[in-house]
Amino acid sequence: MAVTATDAHGTIDAVWRIESAKIIATLARITDDVGLAEELAQDALVAALEQWPETGVPANPGAWLTAIAKRRAIDHFRRAKVLERKQRELGFEAEAPHRNLEPDDVDDDLLRLIFTACHPVLSTPGRVALTLRLVGGLTTAEIARAFLVPEPTVAQRIVRAKRTLAWKRVRFEVPSGEELSPRLASVLEVIYLIFNEGYSATAGDDWMRPALCEDALRLGRILTGLAPNEPEVHGLVALMELQASRSRARVGRSGEPILLLDQNRARWDQLLIRRGLAALQRAERLSPLQGTRSARQGRSRPGPYTVQAAIAACHARAATAEDTDWVRIAALYEALVHLNPSPVVELNRAVAVSMAFGPAAGLALVDALADEPSLAGYHLLPAVRGDLLARLGRSGQAAAEFQRAAELTRNARERAVLLDRERNCRAEGDR
């Protein structure tokens, strides 16, 4: 049954979002070329745009697109005079073009695609762009809008990433043995980078970009199904679910940021909290926190995402800001410093210590980071210092820190909040 072009295009867009990663993954296994796989999948998409308005949407649109893409692959290899060998690899059945793929095959191919798109041989911007394009199903324009960079820049990153994969002869496979850990760490890093950019936009006029958070969560949830025995995968998903649960409470009516301690916790998404706590429980079963019975029995200790999820869980379990177990959070940050030492983690620990043991204790830790080169342009260093000084009643010094933080941030909403705090501190100092 024919449908209108508008209805068909809407359906195709929805199907592509859901099925494109699986189709590209299947074709990448067959062709051993991620760039070619995407081209073949795009050819199938064009065919759908041409045919579905007249023929109607097939019963299994994903299988239809895969079958068409495989036909394009055969045409490609025929031209390359390697049809016979590749046709055996394709396992193509012309008499059954809408045959469903086996779920295990799809899962394995999708996992290979994620590991390929996030390969450490690529630059971080390249990994992010390629992952959102191939696995997330976003267009170049959508990625450019999300990260506030020109569309040609994103296109260049994607092209360069594909060329690098081909030039380095990166195999389309899930790594094993000693190669697995660093490759998995790269995958998780990319997904969390995408989430973080959505959760706290580094630049632009919006405090959050929820669509990026949703894309990262979807990628993380896919990965938990594909790698169910990897504790840090569950830890990352737990962290994202718990942080995403606060999204509605983080932004005011006019789009202004609302900081954690000022949020209306009744607006926190309880479903996401339950999902996050369940994911954390799975991560801790696989890699228990220090001091638990399982940890004493010698099982592997948790990674940084699981520890960060445990910190987020402390906030999620607190009915009010005053109920927050800051002593436990400070201890968890201490553990995180040992797992993932960095000045940013130290800064976050200083905030937790200030909440648990007073602003003077936190300020001492912050001041120890004053000469850290990597934090020289980091706006949150003076922002945190300003907050601690304000809590100690040193309003004039706090105002200067908030002004400096406002000058460093590239996010308009955050700048407005910092300047407002500066004005309040100056007014307090004038009394």
Automatic annotation (TrEMBL):
Against InterPro entries, the record matches this protein to:
DUF6596, RNA_pol_sigma-70_dom, RNA_pol_sigma70_ECF_CS, RNA_pol_sigma70_r2, RNA_pol_sigma70_r4_t2, RNA_pol_sigma_r2, RNA_pol_sigma_r3/r4-like, WH-like_DNA-bd_sf
Q: Which residues form the signal peptide?
A: none
Domain RNA polymerase sigma-70 region, chain residue ranges per copy = 23-81
RNA polymerase sigma factor 70 region 4 type domain location, by residue?
115-165
What does the entry give for GO biological process? DNA-templated transcription initiation; response to stress
What GO annotations for molecular function exist for this entry?
A: DNA binding; sigma factor activity
Q: Which residues form the DUF6596 domain?
A: 183-283
Question: Could you tell me which SUPFAM superfamilies the record lists for this protein?
Answer: Sigma2 domain of RNA polymerase sigma factors, Sigma3 and sigma4 domains of RNA polymerase sigma factors
Pfam entry (one): DUF6596
Keyword terms, alphabetized:
DNA-binding, Sigma factor, Transcription, Transcription regulation
Family to which this protein belongs: Belongs to the sigma-70 factor family. ECF subfamily.
What's the protein called, per UniProt?
RNA polymerase sigma factor
Which source organism does the UniProt entry give?
Amycolatopsis taiwanensis
Q: Taxonomic lineage of this organism?
A: Bacteria, Bacillati, Actinomycetota, Actinomycetes, Pseudonocardiales
